[in-house]
Design a protein that fits this description.
Blueprint (H helix, E strand, L loop, with lengths): L1 H9 L3 E2 L2 E10 L2 E8 L4 E6 L1 H4 L5 H8 L4 H13 L3 H13 L5 H10 L6 H7 L5 H14 L5 H7 L6 H17 L3 H13 L3 H14 L2 H9 L6 H12 L4 H13 L3 H17 L4 H14 L3 H11 L7 H5 L9 H15 L4 H14 L3 H13 L5
Antiparallel strand pairs: 1-2, 2-3, 3-4
Helix pairs in contact: 1-4, 3-4, 4-6, 5-6, 6-8, 7-8, 8-10, 9-10, 10-12, 11-12, 11-13, 12-13, 12-14, 13-14, 14-16, 15-16, 16-18, 17-18, 18-20, 20-21, 20-22, 21-22
C-alpha cells in the first residue's frame, strides 16, 4: 500500500500539467488517480506513476520523499528510483549540486538507488561534512555508486570514523559496493590491498566484507589473515571463514587447523571448520570425507567430539560407517551412540537397512537407558527383527 500514500500526498498538486484531484486505485506498477487539465477542459486517468514520471515530477516527489511519514517517504523514493530516463538522472544530480537544505539526504538516497556515478564527487564531499545525517546518507549512497577505483575512499574511512554509527555505515556501504561491482576477483585484490595496510581494528572489520565478494582470491586473502600477528585479527579471520558460503572454505580451514603450530589457532580453525560443515549443504559425500579426515587428524577427544557432533548433522547411511567404529572407544562411546541415534531418526525412511544395523550396535554399546529405548524403537521402525 506504500504507493497509495504517495498518491494521496499528490492530491492537489500539478503533475504533467494536470491537477491531481483524487485517487482512483493502485496496481503493482504504481497508482492511478484522476487528473484535470483546465486549459483543455480535459479529465484524464494518470496512471503507472513509476513509468510515466519525468523531470517535471521531481520537485513533487522529492517533497514526498522528505515527508516525516515513513511510508510516504519510502514510496516516493522507490518511485524516484524506478522512473526511467536520463532527464531524471541529470535533474537529480543538478539538484544535489545546488541543494543545501533538508532535501539533501533524500537526493543522496535517490542518487544511490539510481546508481548515478555522476553524483560521486558531490557524495565524497558530503561524506566529510559535520552534519551526521548528511554524512550517513552520503556514505550509504557511495556504496551504491562508487567504481572499483574509488573503493579505497570507503576503506580509508574505517581508520578514523567520526562515530561508531559512521563506522557501521561504512562497512555496510562497502558490502553494498562489493555486491554490486562486476569483477569479484579485482574487487578482492582491491580489498586485500586495503587489508594489508590497515591497523588491526580495521582489518577485523574489512575481513567481514570479503564474504560478499566470495571466490578464491577473497578466500585466500581471509585465510592469509589467520597468520596475522594480531590475535584479534586471526580470530576475526576464523570467524569470517566459518560463515563462508562455499565448500572450499571448509577444505582451507581443515588444512590450516592441521598445520597450526599454536594451540589456540588450531582450536579456532578446527571449530570454524566444524561450523561450516554443519551449516553448508554441499554434497554429503564431501562432508563425510572431510569429517573422516578431521577425525583422523584430531589430537584429542575434545576435537573428536566436535567431529562426532558434526557427523550427527549428516543424515545418511554412510555416516554410520564412521560413527560405529568409535563405539569401541570408552571415552567417546556415548557421544557416538547419541550421534548415531540422531542420524537414524532422520535417515530411517531412506536407509532402513543401515539404520537397523546401526541401532542394533548402539543398543548393545550404550549404558544409557534413554538411548537404548530410542535405538530399540528405531531398530523396529527400520524393520529389524527381535
Amino acid at each position: 500500500m506504500e504507493a497509495l500514500f504517495v498518491a494521496v500526498s499528490l492530491i492537489g498538486k500539478t503533475l504533467h500539467g494536470y491537477l491531481v484531484r483524487s485517487l482512483l486505485g493502485e496496481g503493482g506498477m504504481g497508482v492511478v488517480y484522476e487528473g484535470y487539465r483546465a486549459d483543455l477542459e480535459k479529465r484524464a486517468a494518470i496512471k503507472v506513476l513509476k513509468t510515466l514520471g519525468d523531470a517535471s515530477s521531481l520537485p513533487v516527489l522529492l517533497e514526498a520523499a522528505g515527508s516525516s511519514d515513513a511510508a510516504i517517504s519510502e514510496a516516493a523514493l522507490e518511485t524516484l528510483a524506478e522512473i526511467g530516463g536520463k532527464e531524471i538522472d541529470d535533474a537529480v544530480v543538478g539538484q544535489l549540486g545546488k541543494s543545501d537544505g533538508s532535501l539533501r539526504p533524500a537526493l543522496m538516497d535517490v542518487a544511490g538507488r539510481r546508481r548515478l556515478a555522476a553524483a560521486v564527487p558531490m557524495l565524497l564531499k558530503a561524506a566529510d561534512e559535520p552534519d551526521e545525517k548528511v554524512r550517513s546518507a552520503a556514505i550509504r549512497a557511495l556504496g551504491e555508486t562508487v567504481a572499483i577505483t574509488d573503493l579505497g575512499v570507503l576503506t580509508a574511512r574505517l581508520a578514523s570514523p567520526k562515530s561508531p554509527q559512521e563506522s557501521a555505515a561504512v562497512v555496510e556501504a562497502l558490502r553494498a559496493a562489493c555486491r554490486r561491482l562486476p569483477d569479484p576477483q579485482a574487487t578482492a585484490v582491491k580489498l586485500e590491498e586495503a587489508l594489508k595496510s590497515s591497523p588491526p581494528q580495521v582489518k577485523a572489520q574489512l575481513l567481514d566484507v570479503f564474504i560478499v565478494v566470495g571466490g578464491t582470491p577473497a578466500l585466500k586473502a581471509v585465510a592469509g589473515s589467520l597468520k596475522d600477528p594480531d590475535d584479534k585479527v586471526r580470530d576475526a579471520a576464523a570467524r569470517t571463514l566459518s560463515e563462508w558460503r562455499s565448500e572450499d572454505a571448509a577444505v582451507e580451514l581443515l588444512a590450516l587447523s592441521k598445520g597450526a603450530a599454536d594451540a589456540k589457532d588450531r582450536a579456532r580453525t578446527f571449530r570454524a571448520f566444524n561450523h561450516i560443515v554443519r551449516k553448508l549443504g554441499f554434497p554429503r559425500e564431501h562432508r563425510l570425507a572431510l569429517c573422516k579426515e578431521a577425525l583422523e587428524a584430531s589430537k584429542n577427544d575434545d576435537e573428536r567430539k566436535e567431529v562426532i557432533e558434526t557427523l550427527a548433522n549428516i543424515p545418511t547411511g554412510e555416516t554410520f560407517a564412521i560413527l560405529l567404529p568409535i563405539l569401541s572407544n570408552a571415552a567417546l562411546k556415548e557421544d557416538a551412540c547419541a550421534a548415531a541415534v540422531r542420524v537414524a531418526e532422520r535417515a530411517v525412511r531412506f536407509h532402513a537397512a543401515a539404520v537397523a544395523d546401526a541401532m542394533k550396535a548402539v543398543g548393545k554399546a550404550t549404558a544409557k537407558e534413554d538411548l537404548k529405548a530410542k535405538a530399540r524403537k528405531l531398530y523396529e521402525q527400520a524393520g529389524g527383527k527381535s
